[in-house]
């Protein structure tokens, strides 16, 4: 079992729709959770981070964390073609300084 | 504020050679981490430096090494290059090594091709 799992996609949504990206993790000691966006040929860009159970909103983005279910998600409202990218989930576990990344979900927003 | 700067952007080397990659963190950031990204393995942690000391190391052979200078700039070195070392090498910085309160900010990466 991978430490951080994501569906590779592609996840295809129409412009204006809500895109829902999911991530599960195996280490119950995980403390902090990050979402990065990576455009093709570019480096990962931090979108959001969340530490506590519940929702955290930032503009069109909402991160949701459920530690009991070991599940973190990212919702993108009013999806735009410019949101088309690979979204990486990353987890930081207690006692470990390194982030563990999922393999990423490719999102395609259709105009 | 300038972002994380990595040089060079592209490198082509042959098997058996060695290579040194450079990273300048965001001003004020003292923690520097290195990651390797390949299509097959995704993003994998190489090592992390803080205050010129390696604080954590990933599961890579000893051919991969690094160091950090007093101004927080970092270099990583790969010796005896193998074809499988072809990858995008990403440097990331954060103010402190405390991952919870210090999200990583990535540079543009160095794309290494080994022929």
What does this structure look like?
- The complex is a heterodimer of chains A (111) and B (115).
- Chain A is an all-beta fold and 111 residues long.
- Chain A has strands at 4-5, 11-14, 19-25, 30-38, 45-50, 54-58, 61-66, 71-76, 85-93, 99-101, 105-110.
- In chain A, strands 2, 4, 5, 9, 10 and 11 form a 6-stranded mixed beta sheet that branches. In chain A, strands 1-3-8-7-6 form a 5-stranded antiparallel beta sheet, with no helix packed on it.
- The mean pLDDT of chain A is 93.
- By secondary structure, chain B is mainly β.
- Helices cover 0% and strands 52% of the residues of chain B.
- In chain B, the strands form 2 sheets. In chain B, strands 2, 4, 5, 6, 9, 10 and 11 form a 7-stranded mixed beta sheet that branches. Chain B has a 4-stranded antiparallel beta sheet with strand order 1-3-8-7, with no helix packed on it.
- In chain B, a hairpin with a 3-residue loop joins strand 4 and strand 5.
- Classes of the chains: A mainly beta (111), B mainly beta (115).
- The A-B interface holds A 31-32, 34, 36, 42-46, 49, 51, 88, 90, 92, 96-104 and B 33, 35, 42-45, 48, 55-56, 58, 88, 90, 97, 99-100, 103-109.
Care to give the gist of this entry?
The complex is a heterodimer of chains A (111) and B (115). Chain A is mainly β and 111 residues long.
Instruction: Please give the largest β-sheet of chain B.
Output: 7 strands, mixed
List unreliable stretches of 5+ residues of chain B.
none
Q: Cα distance, first to last residue of chain A?
A: 36 Å
Largest sheet of chain A: 6 strands, mixed
Task: Please trace the helix and strand order of chain B, writing H or E for each element.
Answer: EEEEEEEEEEE
Radius of gyration of chain B: 13 Å
- Record field, number of beta strands of chain B: 11
Mean model confidence by pLDDT of chain A: 93
How many helices of chain B in DSSP terms? Answer: 0
The percent range for helix content of chain A is under 10%
Global geometry of chain A: globular
What general form of chain B does the structure show? globular
Secondary structural class of chain A: mainly beta
Total number of beta strands of chain A: 11
Strand content of chain B: over 45%
The amount of beta strand of chain A, in percent, is over 45%
Instruction: Give the largest interface pair and sizes.
Output: A-B, 23 and 22 residues
Rg over CA atoms of chain A: 13 Å
Uncertain spans of chain A, ≥5 residues at pLDDT below 50?
Answer: none
């Amino acid at each position: 079992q991978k430490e951080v799992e994501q569906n590779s996609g592609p996840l295809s949504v129409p412009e204006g729709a809500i895109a829902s990206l999911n991530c599960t993790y195996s280490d119950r000691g995980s403390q902090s959770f990050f979402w990065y966006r990576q455009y093709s040929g570019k480096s990962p860009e931090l979108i959001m981070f969340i530490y506590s159970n519940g929702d955290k909103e930032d503009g069109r983005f909402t991160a949701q964390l459920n530690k009991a279910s070991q599940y973190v998600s990212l919702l993108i409202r009013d999806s735009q073609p410019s949101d088309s990218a690979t979204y990486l989930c990353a987890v930081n576990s207690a006692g470990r300084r390194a982030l563990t990344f999922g393999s990423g979900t490719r999102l395609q927003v259709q105009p | 504020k300038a972002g994380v700067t990595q040089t060079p952007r592209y490198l082509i080397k042959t098997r058996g050679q060695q290579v040194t990659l450079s990273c300048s963190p965001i001003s004020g950031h003292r923690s520097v981490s290195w990651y390797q990204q390949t299509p097959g393995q995704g993003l994998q942690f190489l090592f992390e430096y803080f205050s010129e000391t390696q604080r954590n190391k990933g599961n890579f052979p000893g051919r991969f090494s690094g160091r950090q200078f007093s101004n927080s700039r970092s270099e990583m070195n790969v010796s005896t290059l193998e074809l499988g070392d072809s990858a995008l090498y990403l440097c990331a910085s954060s103010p402190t090594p405390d991952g919870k309160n210090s999200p990583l900010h990535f540079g543009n990466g160095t794309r290494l091709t080994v022929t």
